[in-house]
């Protein structure tokens, strides 16, 4: 019999994932735990979660390397981490005065052993990159899907040369915890 997957939902607001353990700073949120995610350590046991969801929260936090260390600490080995946030080309990245970070396709490479940026050792937390997608995850528009397919095959070229001509808005990461 397969054990139930423990899901951690960071910064859930009023959109809590059913069955998850959720944590948010807002008292009027649907969170199970009210906690400032900029305060470490989180009030969670180590090696607990098989899945971590962070939708539109990491850009609000002060210390991304420390947050990634906490995600690593509370996750089991090979846990999946799903991050959704505004891409740096999106006006949404800049119109919210509480945003502290801006994300590219390579932001999490600092935490992925074997990637060029990992050499800077900002953190002891290690992850494996499963997927990085620019643009909305699901769209029914053929031309947009075609453009996104080309962009996602050439992410760095897109970000360096075309991003401000064709901004994508959203970036989605899937990582795997490595212990």
TrEMBL record:
Source organism: Candidatus Curtissbacteria bacterium GW2011_GWA1_40_16
Protein name: Methyltransferase domain protein
Keywords for the protein's UniProt record, in alphabetical order: Methyltransferase, Transferase
Presence of keyword Chloroplast: no
GO molecular function: S-adenosylmethionine-dependent methyltransferase activity
Keyword Transferase recorded: yes
InterPro entries (alphabetical): Methyltransf_11, SAM-dependent_MTases_sf
GO process annotations (BP): methylation
Lineage: Bacteria, Candidatus Curtissiibacteriota
Domain of life: Bacteria
Transmembrane regions listed in the UniProt entry: none
């Amino acid at each position: 019999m397969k054990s139930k997957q423990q899901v951690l939902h960071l910064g859930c607001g009023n959109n809590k994932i059913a069955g998850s353990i959720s944590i948010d700073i807002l008292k009027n949120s649907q969170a199970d735990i009210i906690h400032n995610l900029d305060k470490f350590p989180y009030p969670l046991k180590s090696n607990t979660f098989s899945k971590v969801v962070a939708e539109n929260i990491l850009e609000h936090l002060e210390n991304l390397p420390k947050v990634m260390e906490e995600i690593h600490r509370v996750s089991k080995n090979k846990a999946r981490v799903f991050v959704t946030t505004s891409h740096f080309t999106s006006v949404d990245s800049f119109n919210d005065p509480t945003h502290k970070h801006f994300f590219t396709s390579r932001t999490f490479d600092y935490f992925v052993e074997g990637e060029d940026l990992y050499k800077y050792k900002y953190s002891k937390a290690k992850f494996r990159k499963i997927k990085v997608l620019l643009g909305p995850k699901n769209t029914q528009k053929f031309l947009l899907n075609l453009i996104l397919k080309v962009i996602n095959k050439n992410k760095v070229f897109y970000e360096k040369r075309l991003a401000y001509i064709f901004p994508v808005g959203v970036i989605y990461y899937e990582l795997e915890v490595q212990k």
